[in-house]
Design brief:
Layout lengths: L2 H7 L4 H7 L7 H6 L13 E6 L7 H14 L3 E6 L10 H18 L9 E8 L2 E8 L16
Parallel strand pairs: 1-2
Antiparallel strand pairs: 3-4
């Protein structure tokens, strides 16, 4: 969000200095020019934020700042905060379930529902020559999928 504040607030202060080639006082202009906060006027994509309010890797206040910027710009967004949680939500297994449930709802809202068996969907293939979208016919229940020759993980 903002590198100088992140440098002083997270548990791994070395990473900002390493990525940006120095400490905040050594190149303050670079820290500001690389900060997402100062580029937010370009954001148009609906955004789903997830934050633990006890996160020491990404300060909770960075999430609040991001949410306020999205609200001021009128960008559709949600801000899901888990009380007492750290980075990765390790304390309560239900929080991971809730996070996933809310992410799926978000995707249904802004991407669409996943196709039912037998429906056609778009698949995104990631390859060395860039991304391409192709149509994939889902098999009917009980059918064996036909190979299209594309390796998938």
């Amino acid at each position: 969000m903002e590198h100088a504040a992140n440098w002083g607030n997270d548990d791994e202060t070395w990473d900002d200095g390493w990525y940006l080639g120095g400490q905040p006082w050594e190149d303050p202009e670079l820290y500001q020019s690389e900060a997402a906060l100062f580029q937010f006027d370009k954001v148009k994509t609906p955004t789903h934020l997830v934050q633990g309010d006890a996160d020491i890797r990404v300060s909770y206040l960075e999430g609040v700042t991001m949410e306020r910027a999205l609200a001021q710009l009128g960008v559709p967004h949600s801000f899901l905060v888990f009380p007492g949680e750290e980075h990765g939500l390790p304390k309560n297994p239900w929080h991971g379930y809730i996070k996933l449930r809310e992410e799926l709802k978000w995707l249904e809202t802004y991407v669409g529902k996943p196709p039912a068996v037998g429906q056609t969907a778009l698949w995104r293939h990631y390859g060395g020559l860039g991304n391409t979208l192709t149509r994939k016919q889902y098999p009917q229940a009980g059918e064996t999928p036909k190979s299209d020759g594309l390796a998938r993980p």
